[in-house]
Design goal:
It is built from 13 helices and 25 strands. By secondary structure, it is α+β, with helices and mostly antiparallel strands. The chain folds into four domains: 89 residues, Rossmann fold; 56 residues, 2-Layer Sandwich (Dna Ligase, domain 1); 123 residues, D-amino Acid Aminotransferase, Chain A, domain 1 (2-Layer Sandwich), CATH 3.30.470.20; 90 residues, Phosphoribosylglycinamide synthetase, C-terminal domain (Glycinamide Ribonucleotide Synthetase, Chain A, domain 4, Alpha-Beta Complex). The mean pLDDT is 96. Bound molecules: adenosine monophosphate and glycine (GLY).
Length: 413
């Protein structure tokens, strides 16, 4: 069973279903793409109903896509019932659930990250901003669906962000505490690692494109496209990321009596003085995992089971190809957008992971902001990018929008 209904969950299912031939496969709630490889279960409300369903159906193994259920403790609930599930416990998921928790831990463990201060009082935060020089970043402590970080280039913008979070409470209690940190410059990359106790195995790096418009302009989104691997990140930097970021973070958790089992995703800024952590996520990246999984030459299910058993392999086999994944969205996303438009797809040269789609009477309709992740795999990043854009030209729906520069930073670093 896979919990979630986006492009990431379709990709997880696509990779896992290969190991489950002939078995029942459930997506809770799933989307218009997952229904072609399993059953969508749309009517479960809350984690108690999901647990009940898992018991009734005798689900062998559950993988959780989004952060919210992990931060709320779905893994603890499953384990209490003796059900097998992949993901960190509620305590360990604080690494994503509370930016203040993650920053304090990184400070203590000497993990490179932007300098910061934490505030739960509006006036104290405001006077800190007034005294310090821009640019800086204001972040909601709690979960805000990727929309809780504000890169501010002057005091006015900083105060506006504080008002939105702490006074208007746009994200509810998630913004009652804020982290204000220095603005880092460099290239952003996403590195995932399977973590099992003190053992870790890093995946190949990917680069997401968080802003809505070309040239990294416009509002932050969940991610408008990604590619893997990242040509400007070499072996030396990857081992530095393991030694200076992942391992000390796990030791820092252990010091608090917390064992981490699952995937840990570090959002990094590669600065002139080395990689620094922007944020930790306790789940697979969306749309990063859509480009990583097609390059994995291993049984994905076995890797997840081995993580749970504390038996991580020493190495993982990867394809030597590149993958580019472009998110096709509804115009207006991440703000207001319309849905319910018919989607026509006339090309099958790429992998299509569905996100905001639904099927009704055999017709596919748009049903969300991010509609599809179109993934092309080829010998080089450039070939993969060209293949993906060519495929997108054969996809049509009203108000379709996508970025035209996904992968460019890897092709011309
Ligand atoms: P977060 O939710 O913490 O990952 O922040 C969302 C996005 O804001 C990141 O992907 C970055 O693009 C940007 N961002 C976050 N923190 C910083 C920082 N300290 N310096 C520069 N950009 C940042
Ligand atoms: N693509 C960013 C994320 O999954 O958080």
């Amino acid at each position: 069973m896979i919990v979630g209904g986006g492009g990431r969950e379709h990709a997880l299912g696509w990779a896992l279903v290969k190991s489950f031939e002939g078995r029942d496969f459930y997506f809770v709630p799933g989307n218009g793409g997952t229904i072609t490889i399993g059953h969508n279960v749309e009517n479960l409300k809350g984690y108690d109903e999901i647990v009940k369903f898992a018991k009734e159906k005798e689900i062998d193994f559950t993988v959780v896509g989004p952060e919210k259920p992990l931060v709320s403790g779905i893994v603890d609930k499953f384990r209490e019932e003796g059900l097998s599930i992949f993901g960190p416990t509620k305590e360990a998921a604080q690494l994503e659930g509370s930016k203040a928790f993650a920053k304090e831990l990184m400070k203590e463990a000497h993990v490179p990250t932007a300098s910061f201060e934490i505030f739960d009082d509006f006036n104290a935060a405001k006077s800190y901003i007034e005294k310090n020089s821009a640019p800086f970043v204001v972040k909601a402590d709690g979960l805000a669906g990727g929309k809780g970080a504000f890169v501010c280039s002057n005091v006015g913008e900083g105060i506006k962000a504080l008002e939105l979070l702490m006074q208007e409470r746009k994200f509810g209690e998630a913004g009652d505490t804020v982290v204000i940190e220095d603005c880092l410059k460099g290239q952003e990359v996403s590195v995932h690692a399977l973590v099992s106790g003190d053992k870790i195995y890093q995946f190949m790096p990917a680069q997401d494109h968080k802003r809505a418009y070309d040239g990294d302009r416009g509002p932050n989104t969940g991610g408008m496209g990604a590619y893997a691997p990242v040509p400007f990140l070499g072996k030396v930097q990857l081992s530095e990321i393991k030694e200076r970021i992942f391992l000390p973070t796990i030791v820092g958790l252990e010091k608090r009596g917390i064992e981490y089992k699952g995937v840990l995703y570090a959002g990094l800024m590669i600065t002139r003085s080395g990689p620094k952590v922007l944020e930790f996520n306790v789940r697979f990246g969306d749309p990063e995992i859509q480009v990583i999984l097609p390059l994995l030459n291993e049984d994905f299910l076995e890797l997840l089971l081995r993580t749970n058993e504390g038996d991580l392999p020493d190495g993982i086999a990867w394809s030597d190809q590149s993958a580019v994944g472009i998110v096709v969205a509804s115009d207006g996303y991440p703000g207001k957008y319309e849905t319910g438009f018919e989607i026509v797809i006339c090309d099958n040269s790429c992998i299509l992971f569905h996100a905001g789609t639904r099927i009704e009477n055999r017709v596919l309709y748009t049903d969300g902001g991010r509609v599809l992740s179109v993934v092309g795999v080829d010998r080089s990043l450039k070939k993969a990018r060209d293949k993906t854009y060519k495929c997108i030209e054969k996809i049509k729906f009203t108000n379709m929008y996508y970025r035209k520069d996904i992968g460019d930073k890897g092709i011309k670093p």
